[in-house]
Amino acid sequence: MEDMDVTKVCSCCKIPKELNDFYRSKSGKFGIKAICKICERDKVRLYYQNNADKLKKYSREYSKNNRNIINNRLRKKYQTDVGYRTEFSLTQKLYYEDNKVKKIKKQKRYYKKNREKRINYHKEYYKKNKEKVLKSVREYRRNRL
Ligand SMILES: [Zn+2]
């Protein structure tokens, strides 16, 4: 018979504990696990520490697989749901517009940053290749006439 004073010695830390301090288990004695909650938690934590790489890989795989499922679901929705399709193209368009603005801004920044550099480069090039440049200009003019 079980009563409130029943204790069980944890097979891990060897400390007698109340049944409430153990997780339930169908296979265990008294319907609880052999090790106490605290040891169980430690064990889980240790397991996570020892298997961090494996678990990280697993969760990566999981999200990758799930992404495929989600993508498939969305594709189906896209094919069958006109409202979703409209909304989707609108989102795409907005994303594209937004990106376009960002891209132009980035290009402008890049241009500004490299303007001096480019001018200097051309100047240097001209100085070093003056004859060549002048010759090609003369040839160009001659060909045009
Ligand atoms: Zn314990």
Fold topology:
Layout: E1 7-9, E2 16-18, E3 22-24, E4 32-36, H1 37-50, H2 52-80, H3 82-128, H4 130-144
Antiparallel strand pairs: 1-2, 3-4
The structure holds zinc ion (ZN).
Word description of this protein:
With 145 residues, the chain is mainly alpha-helical. Among the domains are: 7-50, no CATH class; 95-145. The chain has 4 helices and 4 strands, in the order ββββαααα. A two-stranded antiparallel ribbon has the order 1-2. A two-stranded antiparallel ribbon has the order 3-4. The model has no long low-confidence stretch (mean pLDDT 86). The chain binds zinc ion (ZN). Zinc ion is lined by residues 10, 12-13, 15, 35-36, 38-39.
Properties at a glance:
binds zinc ion, 10% strand, two-stranded antiparallel ribbon, single chain, 145 residues
Please tell me the overall pLDDT: 86
Count the E strands: 4
Radius of gyration: 36 Å
The strands making up the biggest β-sheet line up spatially as 1-2
Structural class: mainly alpha
Shape assignment: elongated
- SSE string: EEEEHHHH
Associated small molecules: zinc ion
Q: What low-confidence regions span 5 or more consecutive residues with pLDDT below 50?
A: none
Terminal-residue CA separation: 116 Å
Main β-sheet, in a few words?
2 strands, antiparallel
The helix content, as a percent range, equals over 70%
What is the helix tally? 4
DSSP strand (E) fraction?
5-15%
